[in-house]
Amino acid sequence: MHQALAAAASKRRSDEDRVIVVQRILVLGLFGLLATQQLLLWAFLGYAWWTYAVGAAGFIGLILLLYRMNGWGTDRGPSLALFGTCLAIATLACVLGGEGRFFYANTDWQVRDAVLRDLVVYPWPFVYQATPSPLMLRAPLAMYIIPSLIGKGLGYRAAELALLGQNSLLLATILSLGSALFRDTRARTIGVAVFLGFSGMDILGAAFLGKPLMGHMEAWIGPQYSSHITQIFWVPQHGMAGWMGALLYMLWRDDRLPRAVLLAILPLLALMSPLALMGLMPFAAHAGLDGLFKRRLVAGDILLPALALVLAIPSLLYLAAAHDTVGEHAQAIRLPIYLLFEFVEVVPYLIAAWLFGRHRFGASTTFVVTAILLLAPFGQVGNSSDFTMRASIPALAVLAVLLGDMLAQKTDTRGAHAAQILGGLTFAIGLFTPAAEIIRAVRFPVSPAPLCSYLGVVPGGAATYDAPLSRIPSIIRPVRSTVIQPHDPERCWTGPWPAALPDVRASN
């Protein structure tokens, strides 16, 4: 009897394991989300109703054509149990990052909450009354656009919860699809743990320069390479845009999806994070040159990304309508600062990757990652260091996957074993950074709800979030907009922010 019950339980577990979420469905689900964001931006810009039908038909056609492309490899994706585990992990990470206002949210969310509130409260399209020209939101709105639409029907609190749900599902999809890069349960566990805990050794840099060893340690020297927990807590839209592109690149390198899928998603990611998209360009170039030199390019590798680019033209024009202060240029950095930064943040990981030797993702992948991470500190967009922080996101994600794959393998050579020790030790020291972020999220009080408009939180506006209406290209400029002249209360939140942290409104 006992043996029969055990056999039945074993069969039930086996049947459950065969319940698989098909990989291409999840990948193309990401396309569906990005397409919806693009179409809702058209609504924010006040497009005529028939344009949505044309655009929707174009996006549906793109997704169906990508579905039918050859080169998807195995269709076996994560099991429902694995996806559920990833969803629980992703939800916990987003909640601890302040989404939904169950825990403390970092000060970046002061502006972000105001943008979401305005998208919920004000009728689309709208502009802010300003002199000499009205101001229009010109931020990467992809993360906000679906939750704000839900909030229009159910209120701002519903929009906050929708944002939490959206980002949790997106991160869970990224983690579960990424699990396909690892061959068994042990390797997947190591891979997810390494990805979520990945960081440079900020605590060593902070200690060397006499900076505080708790709190947000990544600002210890100037340029920053953000830990993955920091990206979830501070800039989830940038993080997940870069991770989506990096994920598809690694799946392509592992022969699990067509090259066209990787190239077609790129223009759709701009509305989520233009800077992360910049960091994906070298990987896209690698994919294109690989197909060209090996004579493996097919018509779909060119035509389908071209179709995605055409469909993304309104969002690309929208993002390009920036103030004069927003633009790319080289950044001067002193050699001692550069060397110290690189050696603390990524050089030990890069040495380990090269020392490990041949791996299934190829030396060319390691070369692209190395080039990006060694050159990124010399780039700048606008007046801040955001380019270094955000354009590095895809390369750091790929490096985390290489490290996870390295640590999960059994090695039989001295060089590979030394690489595992170096990579593992660097990772262990780096864990202090995400741990400090989590401790702060738990210790500080829950962030208060916003009461002010975007201009109430950032008086006069910010070049990275708005643009004069006159700068919006006429082809996408709203014909008629509601002019908003906010009358904001003196206090922009329902309660005080922690006294130890700055108030964005007070600092502007």
Summarize the structure.
The chain has helices at 2-17, 23-44, 49-67, 80-96, 108-121, 142-154, 156-178, 185-197, 202-208, 228-234, 236-253, 259-269, 274-293, 299-311, 313-320, 335-345, 347-356, 363-375, 386-391, 393-408, 414-430, 432-443, 454-457, 504-507, and strands at 126-128, 135-137, 328-330, 379-381, 466-468, 482-484. It is mainly alpha-helical.
Tell me what the structure shows.
With 508 residues, the chain is mainly alpha-helical. The chain contains 24 helices and six strands. It has helices spanning 2-17, 23-44, 49-67, 80-96, 108-121, 142-154, 156-178, 185-197, 202-208, 228-234, 236-253, 259-269, 274-293, 299-311, 313-320, 335-345, 347-356, 363-375, 386-391, 393-408, 414-430, 432-443, 454-457, 504-507; strands at 126-128, 135-137, 328-330, 379-381, 466-468, 482-484. Strands 1-6 form a two-stranded parallel ribbon. A two-stranded antiparallel sheet has the order 2-5. The protein is globular. Residues 11-16 and 499-508 have low confidence and may be disordered.
The overall strand count is 6
Q: Taking Cα atoms only, what radius of gyration do you get, to the nearest Å?
A: 23 Å
Given as residue ranges, the uncertain stretches (5+ residues, pLDDT < 50) are 11-16, 499-508
Largest sheet: 2 strands, parallel
Question: How many helices in DSSP terms?
Answer: 24
Please bin the fraction of helical residues. 55-70%
Strand content: under 5%
Measured between the Cα atoms of the first and last residue, the distance is 74 Å
The best one-word shape is globular
- Classification by helices and strands: mainly alpha
Strand order of the largest sheet: 1-6
Mean of residue pLDDT values = 89
Helix and strand run: HHHHHEEHHHHHHHHHHEHHHEHHHHHEEH
